[in-house]
């Protein structure tokens, strides 16, 4: 079983926070922080809805770099060069130390190769699940555990995904993180695929 986490959904607009939170109904330890990134209280880890090249120069990524310093972007890019030969695939995530007291880690989890629309894809799910599993692996091996994780509305900025759909995919990833399968069969695969691709009976992710 994964280590327990406290998830914060972060956005300055209260209506957006409520839209995101509504998608997590029934899932434990989820709350909202109605503020900008730079006004967040201390937390263990912030997840960036990033691009594959670690270019953290716009949107919330730029706020993260302004808060932690340019050294953070260099650490992210050095890891991408070393571990992914210069291009981090969507569906992977890096836990990166910040060196900032009270805010020790950032997870770099690309939702897109380069900035642009990801509407109609499952890339928010893939990035969110990658972030959660990277945190799980970190907690297995590291003495400094991550327990409080802050997420923005993944893919809802440059990615152009509607806020409720972003929240739906993020919640699906969190649910699957909390409820991993104990065996594999095609019924399980089909259930998970439908959960990711459908909002109720309406297909919202293109096959």
UniProtKB/TrEMBL annotation:
Coiled coil: none annotated. SUPFAM superfamilies: Macro domain-like. Residues 1-207 form the Macro domain. Gene3D superfamilies: Leucine Aminopeptidase, subunit E, domain 1. It holds the Pfam family Macro. This is Phage tail protein. It comes from Blastopirellula marina. The lineage of its organism: Bacteria, Pseudomonadati, Planctomycetota, Planctomycetia, Pirellulales.
């Amino acid at each position: 079983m994964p280590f327990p986490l406290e998830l914060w959904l972060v956005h300055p607009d209260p209506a957006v926070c409520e839209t995101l939170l509504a998608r997590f109904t029934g899932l434990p330890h989820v709350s909202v922080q109605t503020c900008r990134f730079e006004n967040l209280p201390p937390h263990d880890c912030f997840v960036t809805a990033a691009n594959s090249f670690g270019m953290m120069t716009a949107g919330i990524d730029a706020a993260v770099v302004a808060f932690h310093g340019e050294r953070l972007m260099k650490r992210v890019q050095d890891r991408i060069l070393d571990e992914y030969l210069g291009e981090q695939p969507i569906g992977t995530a890096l836990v990166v130390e910040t060196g900032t007291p009270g805010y020790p880690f950032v997870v770099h989890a690309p939702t897109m190769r380069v900035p642009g629309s990801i509407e109609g894809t499952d890339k928010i799910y893939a990035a969110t699940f990658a972030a959660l599993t990277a945190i799980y692996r970190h907690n297995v091996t590291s003495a400094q555990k991550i327990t409080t994780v802050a997420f923005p509305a993944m893919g809802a900025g440059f990615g152009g995904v509607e806020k409720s759909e972003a929240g739906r995919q993020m919640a699906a990833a969190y649910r699957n993180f909390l409820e991993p399968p104990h065996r594999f069969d095609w019924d399980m695969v089909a259930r998970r695929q439908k959960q990711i691709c459908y909002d109720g009976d309406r297909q919202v992710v293109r096959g």
